[in-house]
Amino acid sequence: MTPVEIPGFVDEIKRSVEEAFMGMFGQRVKPAPGKLESAVQLPSDVAGFIKVFQDEHECTISIVFPKETILGILSSVYGKPVTELNSSVEQGVGEIANVVYIMAKGRLNNRGFKFKIAIPELKTDIGHLQVRQESGSDVLMPVVTNAGEFNIVLGFTPTNAA
Amino acid sequence: MKILLVDDFELARNLLSNALTDLGFQKIEQAENGRVAFEKLEKACADGQPFDMIFSDWHMPEVSGFELLKMCRAHEAIKKTPFVMVSAETETESIVQALKTGATDFINKPISRDALRKKLDKVQEKVAKSA
Questions:
Q1: Sequence-distant (≥ 6) Cβ neighbours of residue A3 within 8 angstroms
Q2: Which chain A positions have a beta carbon within 8 Å of B32's beta carbon?
Q3: Which residue does chain B place closest to A92, by CA atoms?
């Protein structure tokens, strides 16, 4: 991915997150404009990771939830308080990541990007999960929902181009 | 309209149920597999309050969505109940198989509210034409 293509890519991911939340929860979320950061380190509780490839690994899309936000979102889905990070919550984050993955795949293909996108992975570690990009440029995008805030981190692999 | 949602994934059932509620439907029941669904369908008929529509996932333990479809189409009181198969986007062959076996329509996951509203309109139109 060239530096020129990155803003378009970021925009499609942002729209995919908006579509996923509207489709799944009927909720209009507001991702903030992406903020360029270097080597983001973000403590969290549960996260879904979507890896995007072209010839080689290009970007990891991390959907990073603090416990309170994801419990709030899923409490409204189940219609009852969800108070612990259990397998239902992991299923929920997995489904959110999966829907973002499906939306992003379609949107990026329509825009002419020829990416391969891996099935999302999921990690849970209450209070200890570190979403950490070792190098390269990252775009940090806070997303506001009715239940609180979560983050999208786009970690771009550095290119070798001179 | 009374609707039965069948999926082994509780979150998927709740997401679809919430979407239908947002669209104005209030009589929504859930079942976690085809066996439980068929029991509910038969009981509802026996009680004189049959379901008006079924949404069923394909892959489920015990009795799959496809098996449930065949059971419904073989049952005198349920054979005409609109049956919408919920599928993943990659399951084209399964969709064709379901439609040939009597599914009224299908809808792809992830189900957006917009797609759901359009699908409901289409199914109701189909049912009205065939009545």
A1: none
A2: none
A3: B11
Q: In this predicted model, what pLDDT tens digit does every residue of A1-53 receive, in sequence order?
A: 777 778 888 999 999 999 999 888 888 898 888 888 777 777 778 888 888 88
User: What is the interface pTM, i.e. ipTM, of the complex?
Assistant: 0.73
Q: Which of A78, A79, A91 sits opposite B9 (nearest CB)?
A: A91
Question: Which residues on chain A place their C-beta less than 8 Å from a C-beta of chain B?
Answer: 19-20, 22-26, 74, 77-79, 88, 91-92, 95, 98-99, 102-103
Question: Is A107 within 8 Å of A20 (Cβ atoms)?
Answer: no
Q: Please, which contacts does A132-135 make with residues 24 or more away whose CB atoms are closer than 8 Å? A: A132/A39, A132/A40, A132/A41, A132/A42, A133/A39, A133/A40, A133/A41, A133/A60, A134/A39, A135/A39
The pLDDT tens digits for B55-114 are 999 988 899 999 999 999 999 999 999 999 998 766 788 888 999 999 999 998 888 888
The alpha-carbon gap from B112 to the nearest alpha carbon of chain A, in Å, equals: 4
